[in-house]
């Protein structure tokens, strides 16, 4: 990606108007995500905003093709603990890049942005869950595999 492209795909925080720029459709490329009404989006957005810097959702907008579409996103939640001298841990979630622009380092930029935020917030580590096939991507982003994920679904 050249410097012009770099400028056109910069990372910023999610804005309330991003629902109309394909943010939900992008999340649908990641997992099951029904359409979200304007009202429901605003309510959830305000709820998340109350956490301030402890819950950051970032996006990249495609200004290159003038589509203005949201083409990449990811989030990080800052967990406050008692262990490790009341340490903090960053949890990265919901990382996805639009299928039309994968392989252009956008995913890595999202992960770097979220990791930098966690570091700046005083976290001693940042962690995430991923599929086996995405391990090489996260290794390229400086992560290493450790332990396993356990889950219990309620629905
Ligand atoms: C996984 C995903 C976010 C990667 O985004 P991306 O923008 O295509 O990745 P990048 O271009 O930033 O890749 C960075 C590096 O990782 C490598 N990489 C990316 N995905 C890879 C994969 N599945 N296997 C091997 N290497 C991979 C790239 O080749 C690149 O290597 P390089 O720096 O040597 O050129 C994207 O493929 C995606 O959205 N997938 C569907 C949703 C998903 O699985 N999200 C993750 C949930 S945990």
From TrEMBL:
Annotated organism of origin: Penstemon smallii
KW Transferase (keyword) present: yes
Subunit structure: Homodimer.
Catalysed reactions listed for this entry: D-glucosamine 6-phosphate + acetyl-CoA = N-acetyl-D-glucosamine 6-phosphate + CoA + H(+)
Keywords noted in UniProt: Acyltransferase, Endoplasmic reticulum, Membrane, Transferase
EC number, UniProt record: 2.3.1.4
One cellular component term from this protein's GO annotations in UniProt: endoplasmic reticulum membrane
Membrane-topology annotation of the record: Peripheral membrane protein
GO terms of molecular function: glucosamine 6-phosphate N-acetyltransferase activity
Protein name: Glucosamine 6-phosphate N-acetyltransferase
UniProt superkingdom: Eukaryota
CDD domains associated with the record: NAT_SF
Pathway(s) annotated for this protein in UniProt: Nucleotide-sugar biosynthesis; UDP-N-acetyl-alpha-D-glucosamine biosynthesis; N-acetyl-alpha-D-glucosamine 1-phosphate from alpha-D-glucosamine 6-phosphate (route I): step 1/2
Domain N-acetyltransferase intervals: 9-155
Phylogenetic placement of the source organism: Eukaryota, Viridiplantae, Streptophyta, Embryophyta, Tracheophyta
InterPro entries: Acyl_CoA_acyltransferase, GNAT_dom, GNPNAT1-like
């Amino acid at each position: 990606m050249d410097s012009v492209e770099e400028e056109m795909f910069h990372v910023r925080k999610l804005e309330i108007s991003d629902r109309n720029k394909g943010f939900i459709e992008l999340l649908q490329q990641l997992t099951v995500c029904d359409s979200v009404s304007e009202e429901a989006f605003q309510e959830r957005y305000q709820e998340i905003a109350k956490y301030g810097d402890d819950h950051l959702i970032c996006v990249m907008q495609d200004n290159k093709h003038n589509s203005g579409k949201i083409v990449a996103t990811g989030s990080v939640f800052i967990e406050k603990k008692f262990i490790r001298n009341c340490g903090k841990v960053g949890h990265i979630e919901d990382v996805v890049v639009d299928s039309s622009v994968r392989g252009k380092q956008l995913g890595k930029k999202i992960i770097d942005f979220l990791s930098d935020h966690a570091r700046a917030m005083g976290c001693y580590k940042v962690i995430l869950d991923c599929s086996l096939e995405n391990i090489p991507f996260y290794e390229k982003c400086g992560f290493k595999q450790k332990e396993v994920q356990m889950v219990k679904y309620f629905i």
